[in-house]
Amino acid sequence: EMTKPWRNITTIWSDKKNCVFVFISVNLTGDSTVSALEMSQNSRRLSDSFEKVDGQLHDIMQHIFKASADAAAEYGMAGDYEAGANIAGFLKVADAMYYQGM
Q1: What's the N-to-C CA distance of the chain in angstroms?
Q2: CB 23, CB 86: distance < 8 Å
Q3: CB contact at 8 A, 41 and 47
Q4: Which of 21, 27, 35, 87 could form a disulfide with 71 if both were Cys (CB 3.0 to 4.6 A apart)?
Q5: Blockwise average pLDDT, block size 10, the chain, 102 residues
Q6: DSSP sequence for 10-58
Q7: What confidence score (pLDDT) does residue 20 get?
């Protein structure tokens, strides 16, 4: 795997002149996820059952919670799910930007 300089979050926070900061809101995650699932159904011109959509939402939210908890623990903030969500969101966007050559 290529070296990703932002993986050392302490460097990111201290070197503000050359960094992009991205934060996510945990509160809006469920709404955004449901909208994405709805758009997926619309593009397929299909209607999924409540149980299927509920199961997908449950799986996605579990993944987000785990990513948030893991990121918080990795950066010394175990139990701080807001910080973990912000770190995990930042790393996800930073990875995408890196792989796009930015």
Answers
A1: 17
A2: yes
A3: yes
A4: 87
A5: 47 47 49 81 85 87 88 91 86 88 82
A6: HHHHH-GGG-------GGGHHHHHHHHHHHHHHHHT----HHHHHHHHH
A7: 46
